[in-house]
Specification:
Blueprint (H helix, E strand, L loop, with lengths): L4 E9 L4 E10 L2 E6 L9 E4 L4 E4 L1 E6 L28 H10 L2 E9 L8 H11 L6 E7 L5 H13 L5 E5 L9 H14 L2 E5 L3 H13 L7 H4 L3 H18 L3 E3 L5 H12 L4 E5 L2 H4 L25 H12 L3 E4 L41 H10 L6 H15 L16 E4 L8 E2 L18 E2 L3 E6 L2 E5 L2 E2 L30
Parallel strand pairs: 1-4, 1-5, 6-7, 7-8, 8-9, 9-10, 10-11, 11-12, 12-13
Antiparallel strand pairs: 1-2, 2-3, 5-14, 14-17, 15-16, 17-18, 18-19
Helix pairs in contact: 3-4, 4-7, 7-8, 8-10
């Protein structure tokens, strides 16, 4: 038996078990042994976990790095974003640096098609260039589909799966530059079912949002917190129910992303009770924040503007926690989609169209930073608070994302899996602290979780047997992260149950 790294004396947690006084042996980046008192090997690196929890590396399956939607793609050459000084989001280097500092070892990011893109192949190639040699952690892609032409869904989807190892797409039911009609959604689902592609859906009713926004502006109700006023929970609930109906008609699995409220959660739960392959995702902002975060100052609440919005009623927050505990939500992702606050191209865009000092929420870029805080928030505010078990934490932050998205060597601690680990501090040796943005490693000038107390934080982050984060410092190298070609989802798929005589 030979090892490159031995982690000793840990409390190892998987989605099903907890093993105390356990060692983990890693060779050539792969776990080869898990058990007590592994033999010492000359030349092998050893880390003493001191009895602390060891969990699988976090998998954040909803991360927006290097967004270029608002950048003229013709100016991007070989993956270089022009005018980096005025770029307000995270790139692959800063976003993945932040990820490993928070215990995330794999991110799945988005290659985003625009409506004028007649092919998704150049889009995928372009994002490969943006990510190549820039990532601190392993990464994969989803593809955002905004123009599902017959050529794309019939000819290019098979290439996407077979040549590029991309087995998931994301669709929008809102945002004018991105939203699809129900007919187009059915086109995508039809092809996705045949190819084993997982379809992710951002479910909000676009027409309600547009109508509400126009009428709120007529009343000068444009403060940041009125972003939430324009999108009450029924906006998410209606679209969630509608896309579940489309998925049932097409007998295809879907994932409802970043669910924020109890009404949409109930629709997902009801579908799952009927054994439909409907999966749910939520995010820490819906678990730890309420809408008063959008009421700070005249405009500071813009920092917490995202879609769906953070909810007013604590009952929605409670429903999200209940949905995690009862399995309605299969994954907890960050939806890391940040932009800087103090920059004219960032959140300040909301102040450039009048009604000062409050601005207009319609023009505030949506999205929050969160890739670094996702895993620690769930561990500190979930496990250590007693709200969820350590096994449930592993299930929603690592194991289920790996299964849902076909990451066959990720998401667990067992022989044959990648040596991706998070070693936490022994609880008796950790001094709780209140978070400030200066502690984080992203390129963004704020965190929505400022001031929240953390009772633990990753002590080591290990990717394929290499320590990349240790005691507060990123020590891994940019470019160490590898692109992962994924397989089809390992979770239940089509049932061959139909609502009429039609068959695909």
């Amino acid at each position: 038996m030979d090892f490159d790294l031995i982690v000793r004396n840990g409390t190892v947690v998987t989605a099903s078990d907890i093993w105390e006084f356990c060692d983990i042996g890693i060779k050539d980046g792969t776990i080869v042994a898990v058990g007590p008192r592994l033999p010492a090997i000359a030349g092998a690196q050893e880390i003493d976990a001191e009895g602390a929890f060891i969990t699988p590396g976090g998998i954040d399956s909803h991360v927006h790095n290097a967004n270029i939607d608002d950048v003229d793609r013709s100016t991007i050459t070989n993956g270089i974003i022009p005018d980096r000084e005025n770029y307000v989001a995270d790139t692959y280097d800063t976003g993945t640096r932040s990820a490993v500092a928070g215990g995330t070892t794999t991110v799945i990011t988005f290659a985003s098609q625009t409506k004028k893109d007649a092919s998704i192949i150049p889009v995928i190639e372009n994002y490969h260039k943006l990510a190549k040699d820039q990532s601190y952690c392993d990464y994969a892609f989803h593809v955002i589909i905004t123009n599902p032409t017959p050529q794309i869904v019939e000819d290019e989807f098979p290439r996407m799966v077979d040549e590029y190892g991309i087995t998931s797409v994301k669709l929008y039911m809102t945002y004018k530059p991105m939203k699809l009609l129900d007919y187009q959604i059915l086109d995508v689902m039809y092809s996705a079912r045949k190819l084993g592609i997982t379809t992710m859906v951002h479910a909000e009713n676009a027409d309600i949002i547009d109508w509400m926004t126009q009428h709120l502006e007529e009343k000068l109700m444009t403060h940041p917190h009125h972003h939430g006023t324009s999108r009450p929970p029924i906006v998410e609930a209606e679209a969630t129910n509608r896309v579940i109906c489309l998925a049932e008609l097409m007998d295809t699995p879907i994932l409802l992303v970043h669910i924020s409220g109890g009404a949409a959660t109930k629709h997902i739960r009801d579908a799952q009770t009927r054994l439909l392959p409907i999966y749910g995702e939520t995010c820490p902002q819906y678990m730890f924040l309420l809408a008063d975060s959008m009421r700070k100052g005249d405009f500071e609440g813009a920092k917490c503007v995202c879609s769906p919005p953070i909810r007013e009623d604590k009952s929605d927050q409670d429903a999200i926690w209940a949905g995690i505990k009862n399995g309605t939500f299969n994954v907890v992702s960050s939806d890391h989609a940040p932009c800087k606050y103090n920059h004219p191209n960032g959140k300040q865009r909301g102040l450039q169209h009048g009604n000062l000092p409050y601005g207009k929420f319609r023009f505030i870029p949506n999205g929050l930073p969160g890739v670094e805080t996702r895993v620690p928030l769930l561990f500190s505010g979930g496990v250590l608070s007693g709200r969820i078990s350590p096994q449930k934490f592993v299930e929603v932050t690592s194991t289920n994302p790996a299964k849902l998205y076909g990451l066959k060597k990720k998401g667990s601690i067992a022989p044959g899996f990648d040596g991706d680990l998070v070693i936490w501090y022994p609880q008796t040796k950790f001094q709780p602290f209140k978070l400030t943005n200066e502690m984080l490693h992203h390129a963004i000038d704020y965190t929505p979780f400022e001031g929240i107390e953390f009772k633990n934080w990753p002590r080591y982050t290990i990717i394929r047997g290499k320590v990349v984060f240790s005691h507060g410092d990123v020590i891994g190298e940019m470019g160490y992260g590898q692109f992962i070609q994924r397989e089809k989802s390992l979770l239940p798929g089509p049932r061959d149950v139909w609502l009429s005589e039609w068959r695909p």
